[in-house]
Structures are given as structure tokens and as C-alpha cells.
Write a structure and sequence with these properties.
Layout: E1 2-10, E2 16-25, E3 30-34, H1 41-48, E4 56-61, E5 64-65, H2 74-78, E6 81-85, H3 96-105, H4 111-124, H5 140-152, E7 158-162, H6 170-185, E8 189-193, H7 197-203, E9 206-211, E10 214-219
Parallel strand pairs: 3-8, 3-9, 6-7, 7-8
Antiparallel strand pairs: 1-2, 1-4, 4-5, 9-10
Helix pairs in contact: 3-4, 3-5
Amino acid sequence: MIRLEQVDKRYGNGHVALSGVNLVIRRGEFVFVVGPSGSGKSSLIRLLYREELPSSGDVYIDQFHLTRMRRSQVPRLRRQLGVVFQDVKLLPQRTVYQNVAFAMEVLGASSREIQKRVPAVLELVGLARRKDSFPHQLSGGEQQRVGIARALINNPVYLIADEPTGNLDPDTASDIMRLFLEINRRGATVIMATHARDLVNQVQRRVIAIDHGRVVRDELKGAYGHEA
């Protein structure tokens, strides 16, 4: 379970990104985080994978107290998380297979584990036939699928995505959204910050709307809403 208690986030220039945020996200949920540009969505997402710390308040993910945890504990936390970005940042000199395998290698996985897990995840994201292709040979949607595969490869409990369809055309974005729904159906908790109004309205999952750093709406079967 993810829990935020009275979380504030202020930056050095005086900008208040989050103010008094209280949230609970339970395992197995699919949650959209929506709101206008500059509302605090990305700040919230960065807190969840401990890229940043709150200025005040507490953030918990399962047994981890992110606000107080030692730096040495961060790798243990991140083994439970998969993170997908709008800008995939694949390694250009590595194939699809190698890009995904790298995420296991850095955690010390054995060759046997990698050879078993990578093909299965590439099959899930529809890239089994592109395993030997290099990033420059892929479409934008295929590159994003590699990013999703990389996030999934260590079997995370939570999949956190920051604008994963932002650079994609509507049809490709719909395909990527269906993939996230399938990942959720298989048990992962999905938290997605997005501007994709049509997709949010079609899927009708939980919607948390942020405006000026505050949670202004939290609906179980929500739509994108007027905050944007």
C-alpha cells in the first residue's frame, strides 16, 4: 500500500508543488493522476520512486518509510517499483533484448534468470520478434514498449508511469494503454500521471486530480474533469 500523509513539496525558488496531500493507494489499483501543467503531478510521481523527498510530511510504500529511509535502503525499495517515462532513454548501442536484460544485470541477476525472464516479458509487450532490433530501428510506440518491458522485468509490485503516452499518436497511445490495463489485470498496481483526456475517460479507473499542488478530486470511476 502507498500512503502519503500531509505531504508538502517546496522548491528552492519558492514554488509550492504539493501542499497538504493525503492519499492511500492500495495494491492492485489502477490510478490516473491528472491536472493542468504545473499542478504537481510529476512532483508527486518523483516522490513515489524517491527521486525527491517531501519538504514535510510522510511517504510510505509497504514497509518502507521513504521520508526517513537510509540511502542504502533505496535499491531495496526500487526493486518493488517499475518506472516508465515519457522519454524512454534506451541505450542506443544495445538491442531490444539487451536494453531489457540490462535492468536485470544491474541487480545481479544470473544469466539463467535473464534468459528465462526477458523473452517472457518481450512476449507480453508484443516485441518478441523485435528482440534483435536497435532503438533507432523502432517506432515511437515500440520504443515505449521497450521502456515498459524494462520497467516490468524485475516483476515490480508497483508500476509508476509519468506521461507514458505523451509522445505517441492516438492509436499507438490506445495500444499502450491496453498494455497497462493487462499489466494491472495480472496484479501490478499502476499509477499513471497523464494528460491523455480521451484515454482516461474511456478507461474509467480511479482518478486523482491535482490543482495548484492540492488534491481537488478523488473518484473511483472518474473522468479527466474540468481541472485541466
